[in-house]
Amino acid sequence: MSKYLTPEGLEKLKKELNYLKKVKRKEIAERLKQTASLGDLSENAAYDEAKEAQGFLEGRILELEETIRGAEVVKKIDKAGWVQLGSTVIVSSNNEEEKFKVVGTAEADSLNGKISMDSPLGKALLDKPVGAIVTVETPNGKIKYKIIKIE
Predict the structure, then answer these.
(1) Whether pTM exceeds 0.85
(2) What domains are defined for the chain?
C-alpha cells in the first residue's frame, strides 16, 4: 500500500533513518559491549535494557525503510485553489482561526499542526476551495470549519 508523503516529509524520514543507522546503532552497540563486560548476562539488567533498546531501534529502522520504499511523493500544485496534500490551510471555527498542514499519515504530528489526510478533518478539507464550509464529527459533536486561506 502506498504511503503518501510530501517531499519534505520524505526527506525528514530519510534523515531520521540515516541518523538511526549511523549514530544510534553505534551508540547501542557500544552500550551492549560495555554492559556485557559487567559479567553474568542472565542477571544483567543494564544489558537487558540495552538489548531491548536495540530491538526498538531495529524495529524503527525497518518501519522507516518500508515507509520510504513504499512512499508515493505527492507534489503540491501551487495556487491550485483547493486543499491538497501539502497545503497549509487556515480555517475558522467558533470565531477562532487555526492553521493546519495537510500531510500523509506517516508525517502527521498534531502537536505541530500537521494533520493526516486520512483524519476526519483532513478528509473533509481535501479538494475544497477557499470559502468552503466542512463539518467534522468529533467526540464532542459536530464542528463546522470554514476555509479562510490556502497556502
Answers:
(1) no
(2) 3-73 (1.10.287.180), 88-150 (3.10.50.30)
